[in-house]
Protein 1
Amino acid sequence: MDIPEQFVIRERDHRIHDPFGPEKLARLGEVLGLAPGARIIDLASGSGEMLCTWARDHRIQGVGVDLSSSFTDSAIARSIELGVSDAVSFEHGEAVAYVDTYKGERYDVASCLGATWIGDGPLGTVDLLDMLLKPGGLVLVGEPFWRETPPSEEAARGAHATSIDDFATLPELVRSFGEHGWDVVQMVLADPDDWDHYAAAQWLSTRRWLDENPGHELWQEMRDELDHAAYQHVAFTRPLLGWGVFALMRR
Ligand SMILES: C[S@@+](CC[C@H](N)C(=O)[O-])C[C@H]1O[C@@H](n2cnc3c(N)ncnc32)[C@H](O)[C@@H]1O
């Protein structure tokens, strides 16, 4: 099993597959006060930038699990490049299956940034991560939220949602964590520049792929997507959608 090829086409050159730049990822690592040797599990770890840079900067140990074989290969290559392959490992696999079959030692930190569909939403993902967590451990959830409620379902779809109901506003999201029994103990939010960086890098990767792959079966689909991608971003995603990582501890 693997993710659809379109995701790899768009993000094959991304190190971070979410709207955080390297500075925000580094800030998140700093504000968590990670102890050397802390064990982190990252579900949907993408190209592994979080675990690799935190292993370098904070001497954590980590395991990443991701459904993309391409991104997992990139994560392994990055761990070697940064000299942290003894501290972090990456598996190609499905996150829920990993949790269901996991019988090892619990983790100090359990995270899922940008893939909360694995738990049918942020709260279900918190529950999933909790199954891997030591008592007193930290859960990290990266999740979009509406900066303002979209004026129409069409605007929500323009911002890559299937409906307005896909996401909460920031106050609703933070309140929902509390009502679910978790304290929000840290938070780092992306800003519109971070979104621009994440989205625009997709446009360039897609354009280069189109130039390199005439005749590919996905060519027309990716061409149609690129026709509208920049406009959709500035018209809908940029003004409407926020993104952040929330660090949670059980009350
Ligand atoms: C938006 S990216 C986020 C990646 C990474 N957490 C980051 O922030 O750079 C979503 C990731 O989820 C992975 N993914 C999607 N469905 C998954 C599943 N069921 N189990 C594990 N990984 C999954 C994709 O391959 C992709 O790497």
Protein 2
Amino acid sequence: MNYTLIKQTHVVVVILFLLIYLIKTILLLANNDAALAKFTKVVKVPEMIISTLFLATGIYMLMQIGASRLLIIKIIIVLLSIPIAIIGFKKKNKMLAVLSLLMIIMAYGLAEMNKKKIDKQNVDASVSNVNDPNYDIKKHGESVYTAYCQSCHGTGGTNGAGGADLTLSQMNLKAMQAQIINGSTAMAGFKDVLNEQEINAVTAYVETLKK
Ligand code: HEC
């Protein structure tokens, strides 16, 4: 299965889920019981599909990426918000409804925080000296890859633990470099972590992984 597709589905589903909750909460806060009842009825089936997709894609991604501490906190918050939302709307309790909405938004924020944080890693100094006559850009790139990329893309780029399979990449060198610098939905950019030489080196190495 294609991880990127699952991830994109998850993001879309989360946004729809949030929208439905936001509308319901606004109607509840506005004391518009009739509209709330009507809206709840209309979205009942879509909401069931969305919730199922939300959980299924979430579980799939969890199995691929593995659970970090932040991710576990996020999952606990989401799971806790569900009964709170159910009780809140059933009892028309505004505080509980708002609380559950805030919890889901908070979990979403945690996911973003999770993505931004890349720690500086140690790259083998014996291969990173450009002035060394034996300097080999691909060896340098490989050590950068091991330090920063392997955790998601796996050894040799194939057994991707959540990252794309780099051996199957269709990207040209330039697009690849842009991806590494700027990142994308599920991959943070490395522009603040790696220097230019490291980016060039890791790009050169990843290029060699392509089949
Ligand atoms: C947090 C996990 C993670 C890390 C760390 C990571 N990547 Fe990625 N990478 C991904 C994911 C996931 C994708 C698929 C695109 C998406 O969902 O954003 C991707 C996509 C890519 C692509 C595009 C492949 C294609 O053809 O679509 C390249 C190239 C790439 N990564 C290189 C790297 C390099 C080089 C590093 C290390 C400097 C790195 N990645 C670190 C998760 C990661």
